[in-house]
Amino acid sequence: MDNFPGKLLGIDHGAKVIGFATCDRIGLIATPLTLRYRASKKEDFAFINSLIEKYEVAALIVGMPPRPPDFVGHSQSDTVRLWGQRLASAVSIPVYFWDEGLTSVDAQALFHDADQDAPERIDAHAAAVMLQSFLDALRDYGADWPEQVMAIEE
Length: 154
What we know:
globular; 5 strands; single chain; Nucleotidyltransferase, domain 5; alpha/beta
């Protein structure tokens, strides 16, 4: 991939746990990294900034759950969108959203197919599945980078 910026950090946002995955500097393979039990936005964003520094991350890819058609009211995608916009104001690197539909199911299936027991929390593995789908779309299908998330203050 031309002009690939370097390591990316994939984020699977959950109500209780945030899963993290990273990729190599050329954007070939995503791997689960860690998970974090949510505290406050301030603490969670500080943790994310520490990962950015430690792993020399060039951009964040936040998994966006699909919004059900004809859904009325506040959805998980609305929650993640707002969180991602606030995250964008707390970091110094670009933030992008990417579809995370069924990544937890796909992560469970990977363990099943490998005849391995899945860990109690698969959030980091779901983040890796989401990040890998992003990398594959760029590399294999020539997809464009999504629009950068616009930062908003709290």
